[in-house]
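Example: N-methyltransferase-like protein.
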Amino acid sequence: MKGQEWYQADAVAEEYDAKRFSKGGRLIDRREKEAVLNALGPVEGDDVLEIACGTGRFTALLAERGADIVGLDISEAMLAQGREKARRAGVGERIEFIRGDAARLPFPDDHFDTVFAMRFFHLAETPAKFLAEMARVSKRTVFFDTFNDGSLRVLYNWALPMGSHLYSRGDVERLVRDAGLGLAEEAHDFVFPYGFYREIPNAVADPIRDVDTTIGDNPVGRRLASVSYWTAEV
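Written out as structure tokens, the predicted fold is:
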């Protein structure tokens, strides 16, 4: 996986949320949580697996809504942050955080109702293998996001410490088909890429976000979207 050593550093884990979801990044956090909740629907009583759970932003969110959830990540430092976040939210008993490899998930077939990954596939060097494993352990839904190769993200991709794999729609359709899944829903957003929002104050980000959503609310704008959310069914 791209940037694996960088990602696992203690200092990166400690600063991860503050660096990415402060200032205008708060808009990104809200939109991503909305996307996850919309895709997964009611989760009370469901068994859910989050791949690359990081600091547990979504893991705790879904546990608060009644899911029994496993958060898997390669970074023990990130998992430590997730455990603390779950403890503060009072949902630690609904979450199991484990260190593991997404290419070899330590679970039997059809073990979870839903499996999802956010901010993962842009780092994946073998995306087909990862998606096939997600499909194997899910008995209902697989949800993930991608960064897109027709977007403004191309212009600053070189500046990211880990780089990013950018996908076309055709790429995603092939991945989903080869994993034995059927594409059920999709959503496309953020004409202005994430890195732009993270560099501006929250008060400035709000009106720019209004412009962003207006541009994106048409076929041309959707083709320029930086990020896409994909819901697939087993």
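Residues 5-12 have pLDDT under 50 and may be disordered.
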